[in-house]
Amino acid sequence: MDVDIISEEENPMLHRTDIRFETTHEEATPSRLSVRDSLAAKLDKGSEEVVVHELNTKFGMRKTVGYAKVYESAAHALDVEQDYMLERNKIGADDGAEEA
């Protein structure tokens, strides 16, 4: 899967960068987690620091356009993002089980 960054916008107040990206794929629309891992690798970040919000694929196309937020650290992501979005991106899921 090939990931190309379309635009980046710094958001220093929330310690993140908002990114619009486009990915080209051979098979069906890739999963949120595989896109997150590919985007993290491209940006040289940890996968816990990348939160994928949108993936839009038009019917029959091999191209997906998306929106993600890349945080300076996983702790900033946990502080800012809503719980359902963290759950969708599998961020912090293991930490809660260890504390209980």
Automatic annotation (TrEMBL):
Gene3D superfamilies tied to this protein: 3.30.70.330
InterPro entries: Nucleotide-bd_a/b_plait_sf, Ribosomal_eS24, Ribosomal_eS24_CS, Ribosomal_uL23/eL15/eS24_sf
Record-level GO BP terms: translation
The keyword Ribosomal protein is annotated on this UniProt entry: yes
Pfam family, one: Ribosomal_S24e
UniProt keyword list: Ribonucleoprotein, Ribosomal protein
Domain of life from the UniProt record: Archaea
Keyword S-adenosyl-L-methionine attached: no
GO annotation, cellular component aspect: ribonucleoprotein complex; ribosome
Family: Belongs to the eukaryotic ribosomal protein eS24 family.
Designated name of the protein: Small ribosomal subunit protein eS24
Species, as recorded: Halorubrum tibetense
Gene behind this protein: rps24e
